[in-house]
Amino acid sequence: MYKYSLVSVLFFLFSCANSDSLIDLFGSKSFWSFNIENGQITTSYQFPAVFLAESNNAMVYVSYDTSFVTKSLAKDVLNEFEKTGPILESTFGKRPDVDKNGKVILLFLDIRDGAKQGDPYIAGYFSPYDQYSDKSVKKSLCAGSICIRSNEADILYLDTYPAIPGSRDFLATMAHEYQHMLHFEHDYEYYLQNTSAKFEETWVNEGLSEVASDIAGYGPQTSRLNYYSSTATDSLIGWNSSLADYSNVYVYFRFIADSVGNSVISAIFRDNDVGIAGVENAFANTNTFVSGCGSNFPHAYTRFECSFRLEQAAIYGLTNVSGNVAGTAFSFTRSAQYKFNLAPAVPPASSISGSLTLSGYAAKAVNVTSSISTSSPFTGLWEGSNGVVYSHDTNTSNSTANVTTNVIGRLCGSSLMPRVDFPTLGAKLN
Fold first, then answer.
1. CB 392 within 8 A of CB 299
2. Does some domain include residue 130?
3. Strands, E, within 344-430: which ranges?
């Protein structure tokens, strides 16, 4: 349910002005936001918003139809930003300032995603297009009725319905989106030095944003943990913008933070390689997740592989772990417990002796008869009657391999933001 009743003076200013960044005498300003359908951006639309409050490093604007957000509430959110912003900047990196005002705009609005109370909804976003001139964005991304626009400003878009402004979840979203802003600035700065640079892979970028909410003090993300415990098998490195994806990357990156500290989270952010390679480099540069969780690693990314084995062993409570890679046995000992109870409830086992399909770095719980026999690219881990099979294929497409054991199967059975290729939009605003 949307709440779009235009006040006449604002409607006049909104519809008749030629400027895309109109500021009137009453403290309102027009912004571009996205229409989003089924998780995909369809086009931009323009609306006026009212200035409410500012602090040293941020300011709050509220959409004209969101009258329930008070100046007092805006100041409370700004106080939180002043506390958490420096923490996240210290962990990750510096923020941009394309509009030269020294502040981040926190834009409160009902994001047009079609969500009703009780539905999944888009709680917020950061648009990298805002870092470029509106002229270059229009030239590259407008065709017919579909047109993406830029506000030429440093903005975090924060939902006000069904989200609850000022709530813990709202503040966690603010921290999540701030990491995206910082990450884009880091990647772009590296691109200026190396024009062959790539934008970070989504699963890493989203994983860092998920754990950023915890680093800011708004964790743990209980809904993510609960969903992980009841979700279908899902690839860590694949991305379809599902709740399972967000839950999976949160659990993995939170495991890293709990196991070896935020210094590795920082190192992953700052590494100039992307995806698995960047994670591997961060482990190597901080001397963490050294080879020690079994021999016969199937590919070059030994520390990433080790981190995933230890994560799966911790989740399923395996300590003295036996395992195999393509039929070759190994063993290792895991000492640290996972901080949260994530192991799913166990339904009746169904016997399997044949093929199993999993995507890259997706896992499936198993009930072990005596051992797990797998063929490449699958790995089996077990202790007693509990175990897990996962695919160590670095491709995200499905792989099928032979597995011999009793499969239990975890209970429960495209990214929102289109990827920005740096050269497409020309030079970023400075």
1. yes
2. yes
3. 350-358, 363-367, 373-374, 378-383, 386-391, 399-407
Among 198, 214, 249, give the residue marking a domain's end. 198
DSSP 113-142: S---TTS----EE--GGGGS-HHHHHHHHE
- Cα distances (Å, whole numbers) of residue 71 to 68, 155, 169, 189, 270: 10, 19, 20, 36, 37
- C-alpha to C-alpha distance for 55 and 76, rounded to whole angstroms: 10
Q: Are 420 and 205 in contact (CB under 8 A)?
A: no
Q: To which H or E segment does residue 325 belong?
A: strand 320-325
Domain that holds residue 324: 290-407
Predicted pLDDT of residue 236: 95
Token pair 């909410």 in the structure block, residue: 213
In this predicted structure, the answer to whether residue 266 has a pLDDT above a threshold of 90 is yes
Query: pLDDT, tens digit, for every residue of 325-360?
Result: 877 888 998 877 677 766 554 434 455 567 788 999
Looking at this protein, which amino acid is placed at residue 34?
A: F
Last-in-domain residue among 198, 224, 258: 198
**Do 180 and 317 belong together in one domain?**
no
User: Per the structure, how many domains does the chain have?
Assistant: 2
